[in-house]
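Per reviewer request, we include the raw input and output of the structure prediction for the construct analysed in the revised manuscript.
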Amino acid sequence: MSRSNIPATRSAASRGRRHTAARAVRIVIDADDHPAWTAAALDAHSPENGRVTLHPSPGSSAPPALAQDILCALGKRLPPRGMDAPRHRASWADMVGPAWTAAASWINAYRTGHLIVLRAHTLTPARWEQLDTLRARTGIHLTLIWHRKPDTRLTEHAARLSTGYQKTDGFDAARDRLREKGPAHPGTRPHTTDGPDTHTRGSGHELIEQVQQIGHPLHAGLLAAQLLSHTDEAEQLAAVRLADLAPDATALALPRLPYRPTSTRHWHSVPTWAQPLLIAARAWHYLNGHHHPSRHLFQHTNLHHHNQLTDILTASGITPAINILTGDPAWPTPATPPR
């Protein structure tokens, strides 16, 4: 798979996150495949401290498999696989571009600074290239653990990296490197909740955790906006623009009801649990090259992901604030409204 399969936007995807100069990828050599190295890497996994350890799913050859593994490592639940489903019912997570952009969006939103990848010797050169692209898009420190003696395969894989690389083969030195947080200061911890509050109508911990586990940034952001604003009006949410989200995501502006294009906006305070969800939604647009303040934050969710989104909302017992489309020209087959 070529690098062109992944959107190439490389700028910081969320305001306030500054990328340091490109740092060489670190390759840790575990020549004897000793369990202590794997244990040290797994022990370093600490999303709340900006470190994520990835253990790639063995034997998975699906093009977006590694992005799916990263999303799961970040605590996200993915839609059921639908490789044989009609295109309008296909999962975004089964497509290379959306899956990797979602992973980059969440890494930016949670301010993850260090990604550690186990079993890197089992990955194809194309997978290494995908990880290198993710590093370039998010500014993370990337550590790849090679559980074999160095050989020509390692040289071939390393040649796919866009920056230089450094090798570490001493256990004590490697363990210290694994504990590094990376360049980004961790922000809101993934999956923390404020508990039920006045911002979110009757939303308890269980519902908040369900929302935080949603994999697609636009799905999670739209549902968070619906809960914190107490609205079920699709037009009202569809009108939200990038400019309506505060830079630190502590406030969100929605047009007043009854909605008209000229409606004035009312600012809502955003609870802590919802802030990274909205930042991830904004990062999704930035990573796809859409930076203009007038860009609508959620409008395109209705057009391209409405089937899965309504499934998620219905399962959560929430009335979907979304227009069910029966003739979306983006898909060759009209969508069927959920029953």
